[in-house]
Amino acid sequence: MLKNIRNLLHILSIGVALRVLRGHPYYNISYGIDNSQSKLSKLLGLGIGVVDIIKQNQHYIDQEVPDMTPQFGEAYDFIVIGAGTAGATIAARLSEVSQLKILLIEAGFHESLFMGIPLIAPILSLNNNINWKYKTKPSNKYCRGMKDNSCSYPRGKIVGGSSVLNFMLATRGGVEDYDRWAAMGNDGWAYKDVLKYFKKLETMDIPELKSDITYHGTDGPIHINYPLFRTPLAEAYLEAGKELRYPTVDPNGKNLIGFSYVQATIMNGTRVSSNRAYLHPVHSRKNLHMTLQSTVTKVIIDSNTNQAIGVEFVKYDQTIRVFAKKEVILCAGAIGSPQLLMLSGIGPAKHLTELGIDVLQNAPVGENLMDHVTFYGMTWTINASIGFNFIDLKQIKSYITEFLIKRSGPLTVPSGIEAFGFINTKHPEKRSSLPDIELVFSAGTFKEDFTFPRILGLKDAIIRKWNKYAGTYGWSVGSILLKPKSRGKITLLANDVNVKPEIAPNYFDDPDDVATMIAGIRTALRIGQTKTMQAFDSQLLNFTYVECKNYEYDSDVYWECMIRLLSSTLFHACGTCKMGPRGDPTAVVDPRLKVIGIQGLRVADASIMPEIVSAHTAIPVFMIAEKAADIIKEEWGYL
Predict the structure, then answer these.
(1) Using an 8 Å Cβ cutoff, are 347 and 366 in contact?
(2) Angle at alpha carbon of residue 123, lines to 409 and 392, rounded to 5°
(3) Quick one: pLDDT at residue 38?
(4) Looking at residue 158, what DSSP letter applies?
(5) Contacts of 497 (CB under 8 A, 6+ apart)
(6) How far apart are CA 479 and CA 376, in angstroms?
């Protein structure tokens, strides 16, 4: 436990330090720590906080589903592959049926309480032990500012999966997102059908939204709240939105378009992962078994009947086979699920044959890859010492003490993101349509080379330019392409689970995606020019990059060059096991999430999305898992 505390203090000391406006109404003195206290009382308070968090971490560990190793040949009713956002949810829900025996297989290990500190979320993606560390296929059309022209593609390798690494932002998307799914032939997936699952998974802790029971739940596992700290710049951002005639909205309510403070999967100032929300409450159930550090190599399928009958996995260099009496449920995510399907003989016949894999079902596995590509190149400096500053360590003791004692303060801001705006660039006057751009806001410049530059894997020349502004006060906007028309692809490079698949996101293949992103950038520029933001003397940092220096500044070709240089993933990969009606040649699973052509096998995670939603994908994946659990229970007579 003491090692964990030392790790926490080390993480904070290398740069997760914040400095915000003194006297802000949220915090009267030193952001919540009373400077009038004696050094002795402060030290005592810190000591009490450290002891308390050690006790909480031990309690956290005690709530984990214990690791066990199945016997070779052991049988279960349901085998769930992957204990991530979807897998943890489904396993927990199925274990509600006491007569069922469930096995949950996870390649990683348990998370810790310290991973739940919201501000340090980006740093977690640098930890090789809890991240699959995928990279995209090198390209000269995108990721050009990253080393080897390849973008980092973090995915969680831990109980809780990517819900342990993500930025905790909680949005669902719009009504039309899901109605379009239904219009594609996916019966039961219209917004009116899935709303009950959004409500079922949610406990809305924001006081002014609790009473809106039309859209919000009050008794679900996932707690949603505003972060417990807010900078004046975040308030200004919403005011700037009003200047541009955008309303302040509940992005999970009736209309999505507008500006709002972030809603996040946070409870008591810490992260709510799928592990904490779904598995901790059921850790003592005897019918739920979990094996950790267990890498699934393939789904076992009877070639005579095309029936999934079990799973093969490796744990501590031992190969183990277990069998499913009813179903195997694949929840390995938008990269892991298609990889395992293909390794098991389900996928494009020509591709599998070339790798020496026996083809059991020809299917477009790995196609339809979608992601929310994000432009990270927009930062403004200001003339006031407010907002986040990641190299000013002066207040570090106060921040740590405040978090340890109160679970409040700057460390509770998820990845430093405080607000977002959803806009429709093609029809900016509409307020009830789907947005095509999201503008996420943070009161920081993020130019320090130990934070976002390293996470993005930027080339050294760009990092040197950014480093000149390390420690500068300002604000940043990430422009997110919500409804990309471009589609990528995942393919195997070998008939070996230990060889990472090739990920070709094909960002900006469709010229309309380029035009939409440029329109989003121009809206962000307008925000910077509002009276509200100019009150801080906001000045856009206009770097001259070698790759774009020959284009006229602010021209469309200039911005196209910039977005191909400094855009990367928002970690929202999806669509690679597309859901569609049987008979749809582009579909891998049907609307009941059954793999077409194979009995006893389903996929339930972000990979089944037929079209990406106008949202951060964590909450939609929780919804998919909740609905999948009910579908399975209903079909087997347990609902």
Answers:
(1) yes
(2) 50
(3) 67
(4) B
(5) 295, 296, 297, 298, 339, 340, 343
(6) 7
- Smallest CA-to-CA distance from 275 within 162, 167, 159 is with 159
Residue entry with tokens 């699934």: 296
CA 589, CA 307: separation in Å to the nearest integer?
15
Strands 102-105 and 75-81: parallel
Nearest to 421 by CA among 606, 194, 610, 169: 169
301 within 8 A of 260, measured Cβ to Cβ: no
CA dist 289 and 63 (Å) reads 14
- Check if the beta carbon of residue 335 is closer than 8 Å to that of residue 132: yes
Alpha carbons 75 and 322: distance in angstroms, whole number: 6
Residues of the chain with pLDDT under 50: 1-36
Please identify which residue in the block is written with the tokens 């090739």. Answer: 502
**Residues classed as catalytic:** 572
pLDDT tens digit string along 390-445? 676 665 666 777 888 888 888 899 999 999 999 999 998 888 889 999 999 999 99
**CB-neighbour burial class of residue 392 (10 A; exposed 0-12, middle 13-18, buried 19+):** middle
Give just the sign of the alpha carbon dihedral 613, 615, 617, 622: negative
What is the rounded distance in angstroms from the CA atom of residue 22 to the CA atom of residue 385? 9
CB-based contact 154:571 (threshold 8 Å):
yes
Distances in whole angstroms, Cα of residue 255 to Cα of each of 238, 393, 527 = 16, 41, 21
Q: How far apart are CA 423 and CA 616, in angstroms?
A: 15
CA-angle at 370, arms to 367 and 375, nearest 5°: 145
Q: Under a CB-based contact definition with an 8 Å cutoff, are residues 408 and 228 in contact?
A: yes
Q: How far apart are CA 224 and CA 207, in angstroms?
A: 11
Helix (H) or strand (E) run with residue 631 in it:
helix 618-635
- Listing DSSP states for 439-479 in one string gives EEEESS----TTSHHHHHTB-HHHHHHHHTTTT--EEEEEE
Extract the tokens encoding 409. Answer: 């303060």
| Strands, E assignment, 505-584 | 539-540, 567-568
Q: Which amino acid is at 441?
A: F
Token pair, residue 546, equals 């070698």
The closest alpha carbon to 166, from 378, 341, 354, 415, belongs to 415
Helix ranges, 373-426 (H): 396-406
- Each residue's pLDDT tens digit, 435-490: 999 999 999 998 987 778 888 999 999 999 999 998 899 999 999 999 999 999 99
Closest CA to 447 of 475, 427, 420: 475
Bridge partners of residue 441, in order along the sequence: 419, 477
> CA dist 374 to 477, 518, 566, Å?
10, 12, 8
- Look at residues 422, 442, 443, 444 and name the one whose alpha carbon lies nearest to residue 433: 422
Tell me the backbone φ, ψ of residue 465, rounded to 5 degrees: -65, -45
**Cα dihedral 331, 336, 338, 344 sign:** negative
Indicate the residue type of 497.
Answer: V
Whether 365 and 346 have beta carbons less than 8 Å apart is answered as: yes
Cβ–Cβ contacts within 10 Å for residue 553, how many?
A: 11
